[in-house]
Amino acid sequence: MRSFYFGLLGIFFLCGFTSTLPTTKFQDTRDGMGYSAVSIGDLQIMTNNLKFQNEFAYCYDNLERYCNHFGQLYNYHSLVDNEGNLKNNICPKAWKVPTLEDWEYMILGMKPKVTRSKEGQLVYHVSENYARLQFGGFRSHEGQFYFNMGKEGHYMTSTETYKGWATIKIKRQGEGYDLTISTDTDKNRAVSCRCIQNKENLVQQN
Fold first, then answer.
1. How many degrees, rounded to 5, is the angle at CA 202 between CA 5 and CA 40?
2. Rounded distance, CA 77 to CA 179, Å?
3. Helix (H) or strand (E) holding 64
4. Could you give the CA distance from residue 78 to residue 90 in angstroms, rounded to a whole number?
5. C-alpha torsion angle, residues 77, 190, 25, 96 (rounded to 10)
6. Nearest to 7 by CA among 145, 147, 108, 79
7. Cβ(77)–Cβ(90) under 8 Å?
8. How far apart are CA 44 and CA 32, in angstroms?
9. How many CB atoms lie within 10 A of CB 205?
10. Which of 81, 132, 166, 189 could join 100 via S-S bond, C-beta 3.0 to 4.6 A?
11. Which of 185, 131, 138 lies closest to 161 in space, CA to CA?
12. Exposed/middle/buried for residue 41 (C-beta within 10 Å: 0-12, 13-18, 19+)
């Protein structure tokens, strides 16, 4: 486990580290979808939203053309079995859904300027969208409404909290981007997914 965990604890490491342009291309053997990935520290993160279809995956406004561009939207139930145990069957082989700690590690790698909102929430402002996060919006927990496509990107973690689960939001702010962390997202809300893996475990699929 990494020795630092800065987002919720408010420990700020502002120096960052090198993020590189996409160097990895691979194919999901389950459906033939192709993806690329970028290195942030010792992690690789996909630079495309996941498009794998399962029973808890949805297209924005139920329109396939949005899935083709923004990928599927997944709720927390896509990550667990019937007993509530965490599973990992939505990401391609050798890849996984990031934990909250993984996301915080990658946000650190984006060299953020950290401030607080008026409500006291930590805001991580970055000058570059290193992982090419997309603004695919989200599906409401009621399942009837979709919001903020083109304005915000919402990303899943595999971290359950006592109030729900943890998700990440990105939106444009000035000449850069603001990222925030929510730890009370309703488990029925559906958001985008970016899978990760450790660089040393990198598996290229051709």
1. 40
2. 24
3. helix 64-70
4. 7
5. -30
6. 108
7. no
8. 20
9. 14
10. 166
11. 185
12. middle
Tokens 């927990």 map to which residue? 141
How far apart are the C-alpha atoms of 104 and 114, rounded to whole Å? 12
- Give the position of tokens 């790698």: 109
**Cα(71)–Cα(52) distance, rounded to whole angstroms?**
8
Q: What are 195's two structure tokens?
A: 């899978």
Q: Facing residues of 176 across strands?
A: 173
Q: Which pair of structure tokens corresponds to residue 18?
A: 């090198």
d(CA 116, CA 135): 22
Tokens at 73, concatenated: 């939207």
pLDDT tens per residue across span 117-156? 999 999 999 999 989 999 999 999 998 899 999 999 999 9
pLDDT by residue (tens digit) across 86-120?
887 799 999 999 999 999 999 989 999 999 999 99
What type of residue is 129?
A: N
Taken as a whole, the chain contains a residue count of 206
